[in-house]
Amino acid sequence: MSQQAKAFINELNNNEQLKNDLQSVLKSKFSDVEKYKEQADGVIVDFASDHGYDFTPEELQTANKEWKNAQTAELSDKALEQVSGGSPGDTYSDSNMYLPGFDCIF
Questions:
Q1: Which of 50, 53, 62, 70 is buried most, with the most CB atoms less than 10 Å from its CB?
Q2: SS percent in the chain: helix, strand, coil, step 5
Q3: pLDDT tens digit sequence for 58-85
């Protein structure tokens, strides 16, 4: 797996401004879910490249899968609170585009 892709995913999870910027780019490019599914990886890779990261769409997919596997291996405090009835969890609306396959981003 590309260390650059892994670093980008980690940065997205820790940098709200970067996450918001990527959300804006994706929302401006995709109003159609099918086009999004077909083209989002390339747009994300281009965005990452503009921010100093260098990896392929395949490396991004691999890094994302590894990130998701690590997240399911151990529940966070937030997840435990949600499971125990602390809150209903996150919801998605037009202001927060859900990225299929990229749970790490949003």
A1: 53
A2: 65, 0, 35
A3: 999 888 888 877 777 666 666 666 666 5
CA distance 105 to 12: 6
d(CA 26, CA 45) in angstroms, rounded, equals: 12
* Measured distance CA(89)–CA(78) in Å, rounded: 9
- Cα of first residue to Cα of last residue in the chain, in angstroms, is 21
> pTM, whole model, 2 decimals?
0.66
Express each pLDDT in 13-64 by its tens digit. 889 899 889 988 888 887 776 677 778 889 999 999 999 999 999 999 888 8
101 C-beta neighbours (distance < 10 Å), count: 14
